[in-house]
Write a structure and sequence with these properties.
This protein is α+β, with helices and mostly antiparallel strands and 233 residues long. The protein has helices at 18-29, 69-83, 102-110, 118-128, 141-153, 175-180; strands at 2-8, 35-42, 56-63, 91-96, 131-134, 159-162, 172-174, 185-188, 198-200, 210-212, 215-223, 226-229.
Length: 233
């Protein structure tokens, strides 16, 4: 079973991002529970939303029973309170990934195209029985945290920030190495499977596979004598 642990709005300009803190929380969680990956979920970018840079939330996928939700919430709460940037508005959410309600999924999808309110998020979280907490500032991060839960529960949204050993791969690697690092499949945008060859990753960083039907799929396009990795949120 999978427990989803989401966080949002923990950073400020010129401070480490929410993805960095998510990796630190995942490392702490891993002392007791296996972590299968961390995903990033893009939300609406709009002047009415006080985001730091890209308005995305991070979700840690933990292999645990629902009985671990309070424990996982405690680990996240302690680290967010200790390490969030002054002036940020952090929020966390934790839920049984197999029991996320349709209303929470709809909230996540709405957060990609609409401006939502903290009151809406808190009311929905309470009615859905989720662990949802504002942990500083205005607490507006509960919106993105709850949206992250809804989007991650679809198993077809966002991309991986951390999975297997993909972060160890450099800007230029191979398709074979990407598959060995934990990516489930590599494919072109027209659906052709790619099983080998040189792989050039965006901006010199490691591959960023998308979440497609619960699988980590890296999309690529032809590039000289190899392939260029694409970022598909």
């Amino acid at each position: 079973m999978t427990v989803l642990l989401a966080l949002d709005d923990t950073d400020m300009p010129d401070t480490p991002g929410t993805g960095r803190l998510a990796r630190e929380i995942a490392a702490a969680v891993q002392a007791c529970y296996p972590v299968s990956g961390i995903t990033r979920h893009q939300l609406l970018v709009d002047p009415a939303i006080p985001y730091t840079s890209h308005n995305s939330s991070a979700v840690i996928h933990v292999e645990a029973e629902p009985s671990a939700i309070e424990d996982l919430g405690g680990v996240a709460r302690d680290l967010v309170l200790e390490r969030h940037a002054p002036g940020s508005d952090p929020g966390i959410a934790v839920a049984d990934g197999d029991a996320v309600s349709p209303a929470v999924v709809a909230f996540g999808q709405d957060a990609k195209r609409c401006v939502l309110t903290q009151e809406h998020a808190l009311r929905l979280g309470r009615n859905a029985g989720l662990l949802l907490e504002a942990l500083g500032g205005s607490g507006g991060g509960v919106i993105g945290a709850l949206a992250g839960i809804g989007l991650a529960a679809t198993r077809s949204d966002g991309r991986y920030l951390e999975l297997g050993s993909i972060r160890s791969l450099g800007g230029e690697t191979t398709v074979e190495a990407a598959l060995a690092a934990g990516i489930a499949g590599v494919a072109t945008l027209d659906g052709r499977a790619v099983t080998g060859g040189r792989l050039v990753c965006e901006r010199g960083k490691g591959p960023k596979p998308a979440v497609v039907q619960g699988r980590a799929v890296l999309f690529v396009e032809a590039c000289g004598d190899g392939w260029r990795a694409l970022r598909r949120d």
